[in-house]
Amino acid sequence: EVQLVESGGGLVQPGGSLRLSCAVSGLTFSTYWMSWVRQAPGKGLEWVANIKEDGSEKYYVDSVKGRFTISRDNAKNTLYVQMNSLRAEDTAVYYCARLNLVVNDAFDIWGQGTMVTVSS
Amino acid sequence: SYELTQPPSVSVSAGQTASITCSGDKVGNKNACWYQQRPGQSPVLVIYQNGKRPSGIPERFSGSNSGNTATLTISGTQAMDEADYYCQAWDSSTVVFGGGTKLTVL
Fold first, then answer.
1. B35-49, pLDDT tens digit by residue?
2. A45 and B97: CB-CB below 8 Å?
3. CB spacing of B48 vs A110 below 8 angstroms
């Protein structure tokens, strides 16, 4: 069974940092692009970042550039996002998701999400 | 930056056909996909490459994409289809989601 399990969310003060993890099992992690997508409370989906299979290419939404860093450890089948200089508007559920060429680069598998709350 | 626009809400009577639109500049030149998100759950891919269904998605879900509008169509809508629906496309190397449409089944 394919599973994506996020962890690391929690309450953090504005300006603080947090690192989220996404443990992947049931698939060959190193052969897929991966992404982070977030959803603020009561709002829609917002793509955050993508990372290539080998980590050599990374792309970010403008609002997180310079503050967030996506990375992966293919030996540990784990995706990460390091979030620095957090703002109230970063408050959201953060999902990791698999990008799959078979479905034309759509997100075909999602984790259950981890909540990040930025508040003093 | 590229934008995709969806109506905030659509209502449909059970058994009827629901259509949810997704507007964007020349979106017909891109591959659009659609996600269903039920309350408290993670999104699920229901349509990819404009009109293809992943394994396990009922045949009542279909999609089309032309010009400036992509459309998700649900035929014979059931109560279980009540959810939020999001369109998505690629703009160069970045991903764009529509704002989402809440589908209410009456």
1. 999 999 999 999 999
2. yes
3. no
